[in-house]
Amino acid sequence: MKKLLTIGLIAAGTTFAHADEAAFQLSLTPDIALKPKDTTIRGVSLGIWSENPQHSLTLGIVNGSTGQSSGFTWALAINYTENYTGVAWAFVNVSKESFVGWQGGAVNYSQGTFKGLQSGWLNVAQDATGVQLGLINYTESLKGVQIGFLNIVKNNGWFDEFPNKLAKGFPIVNWSF
């Protein structure tokens, strides 16, 4: 009994010492959840629609990862992130500032910098380093390779020196290093 009481007090003390962190989140919406939106989840997050800073396994229909987040996020519909390191799988993946890792889904969109692998039907990145693998791949600038039906690099210095300035888009493969 004493051991159980001691463990309970230690656990409670740890919880109160790190009130802005939690090991588990369960949510219907960001505002109807066990923990508030500003609580960092370090463990597992399950929800219909969740939105927290995360360093966890996140499973749901719509997953939002705010701030500097990392881990594995799988959503039936949409993953949206600010700054994320890890793996994001969903029908649609959206990254606002930076993404490092693997975005896998029908549509992958990285508004800021992207480093890693994008695989899907449509892959779009502002500034990409790595590989885009899909039917249609588009990026403003690329350090890497695109493989797909249509591959476009808007600012591709690799082809600027050729006569008549070759097109920035190619079928099958495009590259810039």
- Estimate percent helicity: under 10%
How many runs of DSSP E, i.e. beta strands? 7
Identify the strand order in the major beta sheet: 2-1-3-4-5-6-7
The largest β sheet comes out as: 7 strands, mixed
Q: What is the succession of H and E elements?
A: HEEEEEEE
Termini separation (Å)? 65 Å
In percent terms, what proportion of residues is strand?
A: over 45%
Helix count, DSSP H or I runs of 4 or more residues: 1
Report what the structure shows.
The chain is mainly beta and 177 residues long. Helix content is 9%, strand content 72%. The chain contains one helix and seven strands; from the N terminus they run αβββββββ. It has one helix spanning 2-17, and strands at 21-29, 32-33, 40-52, 55-89, 92-104, 107-153, 169-176. It has a seven-stranded mixed β-sheet with strand order 2-1-3-4-5-6-7, with no helix packed on it. A hairpin with a 2-residue loop joins strand 1 (21-29) and strand 2 (32-33). It is elongated. Mean pLDDT is 88; it is low at 4-17.
Task: Give the secondary structure arrangement, pairings included.
Elements (H helix, E strand, L loop, with lengths): L1 H16 L3 E9 L2 E2 L6 E13 L2 E35 L2 E13 L2 E47 L15 E8 L1
Parallel strand pairs: 1-3, 3-4, 4-5, 5-6
Antiparallel strand pairs: 1-2, 6-7
